[in-house]
Amino acid sequence: MINVTIWNxxxxxxxxxxxxxxxxxxxxxxxxxxxxxxxxxxxxxxxxQPEHGLTDAILESTDVLYWWxxxxxxxxxxxxxxxxxxxxxxxxxxxxxxxxxxxKIFKTLMGxxxxxxxxxxxxxxxxxxVAPAHPIAKGLPECILLETEEMYGEHFDIPAPEELIFVxxxxxxxxxxxxxxxxRGQGKIFYFRPGHEIYPTYHNPxxxxxxxxxxxxxxxxxxxxxxxxxxxxxxxxx
Length: 238
Ligand code: ZN
Prior knowledge:
By secondary structure, the chain is of the alpha/beta class.
């Protein structure tokens, strides 16, 4: 079983009636429904819980952490961010969603501003698969169509992705690197663009498929844990 924890700041849902009607169980609740119970144990955590719902015990037992935040990035404690980063470097998977591009955890792991262009104008989005052989693209069509979404446009100030899985086109003319993978330490990181809070993106079965594929990929097995520091020779030295 893969242990998934879905973290959501969960503020828009309480402040905006439109968001509350689109996500009555919260964005985290909608994302949680993506995961088949045959392979996953899913927990959710939110900003206003003690330790933001990310206690040491929960982080230690999480294989893949999902992160949705927007209006309250600054309220996330630096101490918790440091703990999440340590777990990622030790091998926990991290899937950063949509406006999570400006989260403390994503910016610290990327080392760049993670800035981009944006527009809330009901753009149509076409998410093109550009790495069809990648496990995150498994079972997906050549193009996922979202009738209405927020636009994110290039330039997206991230390090060059190690693998680029999806590229988005928007009806306003912009393009965006929508699905990007990175490795940091032993951790596997996936950034996935769509998911503005007023649109039903996290109810879309194809978006669910991407999220589930990302969990299998980010939780997939690694090699031996590296050993650092002063090392005794393995052979007789001259
Ligand atoms: Zn947004």
